[in-house]
């Protein structure tokens, strides 16, 4: 299924992997060339990420609550503002926002952050959804307070409509630590057999822990008085980000614009939400991700997408194996993999603006080097 | 000075008045045809609007604090959300956001609201500036808390940069009751002889009261320990909106994009801020306003613009004199005149998207009719 096809349109857009539905993916790529694009990065938190062992998208379980805010502050300004440190894993491996920032620097499109429920408000101008809300512990069936999921969906649908007027393609990325666990929760709550299929930001994927947490929440949902329509499922087992992305997609597609869903396995939860709400995608959406997601043998994005909403998957073929930085080499060993729209934004730079993979990878290295020199990674490459 | 020149490019873009610097205005119009545009509406409040007699942009002095929020909720969704009533003057004349909404419906550009300090948060997705802050009473020299003006400027400059990437022209409107008084404050604080020149949302312009309030604040500024650089002046005599618009303009122009500053006399305060910060506009900015502003004999926009930053002024030649609605006819008698980017947005629809004046005016009437039928104007045309 994983067909490795160099893109035929010339040297500047090679290094894309058409992972799933390659013909449709190729048509999408041809249609978005030189088109008008805008990128949105949806952030939010769930207390689920603070359960020890669930997320390594932060130096400690507690630190994961700050990661989305620090990610986007760094993305926009080049440095984190609310705290003096770039988000890293416990091993010191830096956020994939480095890739996103490098890619955005090489293209000329507007981009904005959308706050669907971050633990602290980012100190940059950004879009807020009025019903933004930090998610609770999904093992206690407290994904979101009652009534919030539907509101977030409607608000982001409205945003998707107003922001995509006269725009051809919208790139939508995410930052939510614990997001693969809440994605599993949404999928399981909707009846999908997704156990063992979602990815993880570490090389050891804690499938058993994720399954345990989701099943605890599911049990509360089944015996409780919680409404179990789609929004009830999200309010039990979900989080603020996936439902907001689903709303954005609906709004954008209703304007006949296209979507690059920039993320890994968790985007299948967005697809599942859209499917359960009977939103027609009409060949206007692809998933754009990284090589590390599709090469990950602890998860299966193709299976997840096939069982939810069978859309094309494209991956950007990063290769950091010969990088001079240990922090980037770790990506090749299964750390981080994806996040903050890294893969999809690099794909957009390549297919919309014709930026070469070499340029993106060089810019990632320059960005990493700059972070090291400014001490944003504690003044040294911690991964040496 | 007021040259009435039908635009030569065909019937669909007639009815623009090239008020000031007509040759430069014409060049600007030609350059932005069919270009990529985005519109921003900056909202904020100042307690100064609650001083009786200062503002009629609300049914009562206190109600003016809610007007910006209700304006943009109506603009985006077609109905106010935080309260059940469309902003009106004490006479019941509805907000100029009707014109803005009608114009946006006829063009296909993204638009967003920017909150620089609204009294209540709008219940729509919108951009927030992290340092957003409601302004205080400028007669007490409390325009903004210390340190906020500079922060708002930097934050909106950053927003202007990220939102205008790959965009040709940015339309920037405002909603801030009391805004002509704080604009006068900023101008006076910077040493301009602007007394008697700013406009008003009513036919009787309370120049004496505005001057009294500003002079009280000026006295505090001069004898006090308040820093009197540009940001000190704004923190004494200004408000959150004008400095944020100035920051946006700087960010947009630095990206080589153009600006339609969509507002009346108060935009001269934005120009004064830009001039004092030595921001070069490089022929990239025009003021876009309404006929009612340039025909207003209680104010003088040309004089204000000439003395601050001498840019072209274009006015949209609305004519509601034969309207079937009294509420719109009142506009011809000097009520409301401008606001929420009404004139500049109509101009943008005309010059960028080739929408005819007839279509805009018809759509304004449909919008007004819809508001009447849904009871948003208290169920009847209160102005009969």
Query: How many distinct domains of chain A?
Result: 1
Give the oligomeric state of the chains in this entry, treating copies of one chain as homo and distinct chains as hetero.
homodimer
Instruction: Please list the strands of the largest sheet of chain A in the order they lie side by side.
Output: 1-8-7-6-5-2-3-4
Contiguous runs where pLDDT drops below 50 for at least 5 residues of chain A? 1-13, 378-384
Percent of residues of chain A in beta strands?
5-15%
CATH T-level fold name of chain A: Rossmann fold
**If helices are DSSP runs of H or I spanning 4 or more residues, what is the number of helices of chain A?**
14
Morphology of chain A: globular
- The named CATH superfamily of chain A: Nicotinate-nucleotide-dimethylbenzimidazole phosphoribosyltransferase (CobT), large domain
Query: First CA to last CA of chain A: what distance?
Result: 37 Å
Structural class of chain A: alpha/beta
CATH uppermost class of chain A: Alpha Beta
Helix content of chain A: 25-40%
CATH architecture call of chain A: 3-Layer(aba) Sandwich
Q: Biggest interface in this structure? A: A-B, 32 and 32 residues
Overview features:
disordered N terminus, Rossmann fold, disordered C terminus, 12% strand, 8-stranded mixed beta sheet, 8 strands, 14 helices, alpha/beta, globular, 384 residues
Question: Would you kindly provide a brief summary of this structure?
Answer:
By secondary structure, the first copy, chain A, is of the alpha/beta class. Chain A has helices at 22-32, 67-77, 97-105, 148-163, 179-189, 207-223, 230-237, 240-254, 267-276, 291-294, 301-308, 326-329, 342-351, 357-373, and strands at 16-20, 37-44, 111-117, 126-128, 169-175, 258-262, 285-290, 313-316. The first copy, chain A, has one domain (11-373): Nicotinate-nucleotide-dimethylbenzimidazole phosphoribosyltransferase (CobT), large domain (Rossmann fold, 3-Layer(aba) Sandwich), CATH 3.40.50.10210.
């Amino acid at each position: 299924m994983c067909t490795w096809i160099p893109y035929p349109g010339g040297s500047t857009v090679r290094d894309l992997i058409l992972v799933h539905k390659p013909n449709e993916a190729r048509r999408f790529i041809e249609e978005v060339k030189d088109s008008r694009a805008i990128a949105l990065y949806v952030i939010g938190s769930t207390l689920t990420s603070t359960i020890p062992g669930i997320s390594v998208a932060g130096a400690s379980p507690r630190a994961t609550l700050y990661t989305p805010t620090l990610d986007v502050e760094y993305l926009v300004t080049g440095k984190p503002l609310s705290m003096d440190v770039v988000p890293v894993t416990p091993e010191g491996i830096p956020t994939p926002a480095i890739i996103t920032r490098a890619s955005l620097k090489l293209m000329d499109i507007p981009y904005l952050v959308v706050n669907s429920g971050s633990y602290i408000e980012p100190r940059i101008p950004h879009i807020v959804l009025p019903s933004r809300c930090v998610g609770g512990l999904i093992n206690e069936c407290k994904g979101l307070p009652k009534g919030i999921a539907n509101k977030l969906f409607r608000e982001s649908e409205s945003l998707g409509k107003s922001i995509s007027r006269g725009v051809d393609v919208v790139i939508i990325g995410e930052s939510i630590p614990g997001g693969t666990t809440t994605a599993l929760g949404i999928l399981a709550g909707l009846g999908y057999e997704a156990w063992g299929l979602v990815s993880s930001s570490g090389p050891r994927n804690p499938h058993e822990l994720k399954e345990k947490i989701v099943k605890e929440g599911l049990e509360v949902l089944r015996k409780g008085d919680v409404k179990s329509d789609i929004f009830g499922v999200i309010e039990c087992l979900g989080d603020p980000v996936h439902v907001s992305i689903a709303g954005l997609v609906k709004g954008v597609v209703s304007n006949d614009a296209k979507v690059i869903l920039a993320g890994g396995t968790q985007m299948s939860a967005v697809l599942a939400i859209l499917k359960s709400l009977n939103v027609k995608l009409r060949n206007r959406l692809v998933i754009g991700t990284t090589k590390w997601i599709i090469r990950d043998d602890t998860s299966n994005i193709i299976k997840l997408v096939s069982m939810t909403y069978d859309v094309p998957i494209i991956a950007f073929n990063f290769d950091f194996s010969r990088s001079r930085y240990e922090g980037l080499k770790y990506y090749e060993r299964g750390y981080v993999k994806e996040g903050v729209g890294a893969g999809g934004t690099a794909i957009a730079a390549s297919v919309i603006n014709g930026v070469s993979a070499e340029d993106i990878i060089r810019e990632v290295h320059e960005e990493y080097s700059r972070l090291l020199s400014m001490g944003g990674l504690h003044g040294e490459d911690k991964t040496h």
